[in-house]
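Protocol step 4 of 5: obtain the predicted structure for the target chain.
Materials: sequence only (see below). No template structures provided, no constraints applied. The aim of this step is simply to have a reference model before the mutagenesis design in step 5. Sequence pasted as it appears in the construct record:
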Amino acid sequence: MLGRPWTRCSRANVAATVILDLYGTLVEPDWPTLLRGRAALASRVGIPPEAAHRAWDTTHLARMSGAYGSLADDLHAVFSEAAGGCAAPASRSLLLELAAQERENWRGGVRLFPETFVGLRRLRSAGHLLAIVTNASAEAASVIEGLGLTPLVDAVLASCDAGVLKPELLEFALRSLRIDARGSFAVDDEPAQLDHAAELGMGTILVRRKGAEAPPAAVSPHLRASDLEHAADLVAGAQPGPRQ
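Step 4 output (structure tokens):
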């Protein structure tokens, strides 16, 4: 778990717990920048970028579930896969150096949505406990601290640390953080994740920004927000728990 230890008495008059997704909800990746950074890593160990990119894809789920260990171990797995299953052509010291470079690559290649800080502060000022719960590999999760999100939330739980992916990660978070599902909201940009949250008894808010395809209203039971500020307004005006 990243961030400050969870405490349910961290602020008085807590209105509800709000569990926030990360990518697509609070931040967005700039993939051309990220891929250029990864190509530079591959070049440093003498692996063709195309082979390395394929290996990043094939190891994606394992890296998100923390199967290899640290980010340096993730890179070892990626480079070994790209090299056809042979040992990664990099020393441990170089892997550690490349891991630091990859973290910086992600911190520079992931952007906060313009309203993220305002929305988080609005939720906090209303007394809500906030948790980021996200499917993320080590480098993808590192942006939470790197972009200054950690001080604005009460807890962070990334799949690479928990060893389990959404939707099971959401249930893991409810148990480990001792959250009452019926006194909480899930805010996410993926309807499937919110469907699961609703089954658990949570209130659900689907973030769909301008230009994003939205599911038909007739088949979506979730409240809809155009951004995180709008989501904060919906939390203020709604009761937690599933919609009828």
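Step 4 remarks: Residues 1-13 have pLDDT under 50 and may be disordered. Residues 17 and 184 are 5 Å apart (CA to CA).
Proceed to step 5.
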